[in-house]
Amino acid sequence: MTENNFWLKKIEISVSEAEKRTGRNAMNMQETYTAYLIETRSVEHTDGQSVLTDSLWRRYSEFEVLRNYLLVYYPHVVVPPLPEKRAEFVWHKLSADNMDPDFVERRRIGLENFLLRVASHPILCRDKIFYLFLTQEGNWKETVNETGFQLKADSRLKALNATFRVKNPDKRFTELKHYSDELQSVISHLLRVRARVADRLYGVYKVHGNYGRVFSEWSAIEKEMGDGLQSAGHHMDVYASSIDDILEDEEHYADQLKEYLFYAEALSPRAVCRKHELMQYDLEMAAQDLASKKQQCEELATGTVRTFSLKGMTTKLFGQETPEQREARIKVLEEQINEGEQQLKSKNLEGREFVKKAWADIERFKEQKNRDLKEALISYAVMHISMCKKGIQVWTNAKECFSKM
Amino acid sequence: MDVNSLSPMIPTSPLSMINQIKFEDEPDLKDLFITVDEPESHVTTIETFITYRIITKTSRGEFDSSEFEVRRRYQDFLWLKGKLEEAHPTLIIPPLPEKFIVKGMVERFNDDFIETRRKALHKFLNRIADHPTLTFNEDFKVFLTAQAWELSSHKKQGPGLLSRMGQTVRAVASSMRGVKNRPEEFMDMNNFIETFSQKINLIDKISQRIYKEEREYFEEMKEYGPIHILWSASEEDLVDSLKGVASCIDKCCKATEKRMSGLSETLLPVVHEYVLYSEMLMGVMKRRDQIQAELDSKVEALTYKKADTELLTEEIGKLEDKVECANNALKADWERWKQNMQNDIKSAFTDMAEENISYYEQCLATWESFLTSQTDLHLEETSEEK
């Protein structure tokens, strides 16, 4: 299937399996890692049947390379985030181990989500490297490296500490920066507290399980109360074990929030806002440079020296330059000024283009975010409703047993 | 009251037992009502202590008046308990709340501690009032009615310190003997008590632990809701949803608080009382064994002709009566105690289950109403778009 046909048919992407593997790393040391199976299916329009067209294995680090590539080549796009590299915001029972099967499972879902988001992005889905990621198992890494994206990456984007004094940033970007900082901070806080709440809830449920055992032992010495105690104890066990599923569901909710935490990180310091800042900075620097050159030219032409210049000093010390020399210099400067003006024009245009494209994607992102978060909150409510219903049922059963004692 | 004189109120037949159970369940048959309240702190140069106000209302003839109000301190309750145990060594005397609680106590006069103790003291006196034998005990009457100075002088009467000490020494020495000749029904009783004691202690620990975990859950939930409000400040389009979730969490938080207080009012004190009861029961078993041991040692002495046979035979006769009375008293009281225990445990756990049901129902209503508001909104929005 050629690249063009690929996008004409509707495709389904899934990360269907995860497998533990051992291999040798770059330093020829043995390592264990997890590989994920990516399956791509094309859906025939006519009968809706899907046909498996490609399937290959990728590991997390390859996803990272893909994402870094997208960040460089599409600086005006809010690139979807990857699931977390290491487990964070864990509550005590949840494992922080990358090899833990629950973590691997949640990561599998996160990676699938990433690919689906890229595939549904109007601009990113057309990227050839993305297409190859899904279809070309061997050599993909070489192909990406050949694009030279690592070199193209503006190293200043990575220098998070460097500040650029930008005089006229687009106000909307400044607001966006503030928003993304706030979002990051509030979601982190929320996730931290949620983890603690989960921990406590787990404790409440599990301790009830101890009743089960003791009731059962007690029932052995009771004649009339025995049956009631025994069956009530069974319900306590049911109650205690119900928390495991409940909290697993909640973990999915936490993952949805985490995705937007990582999205917020993509908005601000590294990508879109930063890029705009840098462009604006370059623009302002170029304008400044141009202005100073123009001034120099003026001074030479009129003979007035308003600003300090080395040439001016040397002229004073070693004698005036000849009119020919002066003419020559003016001509050079005029050429530079022309060039500079052209450059400034194109930089301005570039800047405005970037702002326009970037803002369009940000609007798209905002709508996506609002939809997704609203849905997430609703699903959270649904989870709680289910938890309450289970609770009512178990305790109603227990109450019946107790009243029969 | 001497254990040799059988009170006509000790039930010996199932029929009279049924009557006696009714006696407790129907308050209109009660003729003695006691309340314990108003703890007050008293400071003297030597010590600080708390007294509780005790109000008694009665229609009984043997009481001089129909209403009494006195103040008593914990020491007085201890005295009463000691006198009851002395007079009725094989009856199951209700337990007193502990003297001190070792764990988690900062000072004796912490408010929660005083309130818990007050409730337990109230229970203690009412259980005595409901007991068919103990309710007519003379020391009990004095406790409820005498003024402070009257009580002090009354306390000074009775067996002296030395004779009480002598009793304790004899008790320790002879209790082992009584165990060897224990009749089977008391062996069964003892086994039950041992297992029951183990289990009720575990249940007490589990229940306390649940309370603690619920409290910590509540503390975390208090912080959880407000974060959503904070978030809503930076999200124009999500304000309703976020505020909605915050409000649900806060309501569930309040429901948790209610659940916790329900637990501490119904389940915890009942379970704890039965922990104390189980210790009480072991004491009762020991005393019964003691009484039996007295008899056994005299019988042994007769066998080896250690002393005057005629005198011994007479003593043995008296002791045999004593043992029979003690055993009968315990047997009857045991049945009564078991029935009460079953009712109390059943009702405490049923209450706990009810608290939990009510908690989940409240939370369910909150989340369901949030969900409806969100989906209604969604329907509105989609119809607007159309």
From TrEMBL, chain A:
SMART domains: PX. One of its GO terms (biological process) is endocytic recycling. Heterodimer; heterodimerizes with SNX7 or SNX30. Interacts with WWC1/KIBRA. Identified in a complex with WWC1/KIBRA and dynein components DYNLL1 and DYNC1I2. Interacts with BIN1. The keyword Endoplasmic reticulum does not apply. Keywords: Acetylation, Endosome, Lipid-binding, Membrane, Protein transport, Transport. CDD domains: BAR_SNX4 (cd07622), PX_SNX4 (cd06864). This is Sorting nexin-4. Involved in the regulation of endocytosis and in several stages of intracellular trafficking. Plays a role in recycling endocytosed transferrin receptor and prevent its degradation. Involved in autophagosome assembly by regulating trafficking and recycling of phospholipid scramblase ATG9A. SUPFAM superfamilies: PX domain. It holds the Pfam family PX. The keyword Membrane applies. Its main location: membrane. GO terms for molecular function: epidermal growth factor receptor binding; insulin receptor binding; leptin receptor binding; phosphatidylinositol-3-phosphate binding; transferrin receptor binding. Gene3D superfamilies: Arfaptin homology (AH) domain/BAR domain, Phox-like domain. One of its GO terms (cellular component) is cytoplasmic dynein complex. Residues 14-140 form the PX domain.
TrEMBL record, chain B:
Its main location: membrane. The keyword Protein transport applies. Keywords: Protein transport, Transport. One of its GO terms (cellular component) is phagophore assembly site. GO terms for molecular function: phosphatidylinositol binding. It comes from the Eukaryota. It is a peripheral membrane protein. It comes from Loxodonta africana (African elephant). Pfam families: PX (PF00787). GO terms for biological process: autophagy of mitochondrion; endocytic recycling; piecemeal microautophagy of the nucleus; positive regulation of autophagosome assembly; protein transport; reticulophagy. Heterodimer; heterodimerizes with SNX4. It is found in: Early endosome membrane. Belongs to the sorting nexin family. This is Sorting nexin 7. InterPro entries: AH/BAR_dom_sf (IPR027267), BAR_SNX7 (IPR042131), PX_dom (IPR001683), PX_dom_sf (IPR036871), PX_SNX7 (IPR042130). Residues 30-151 form the PX domain.
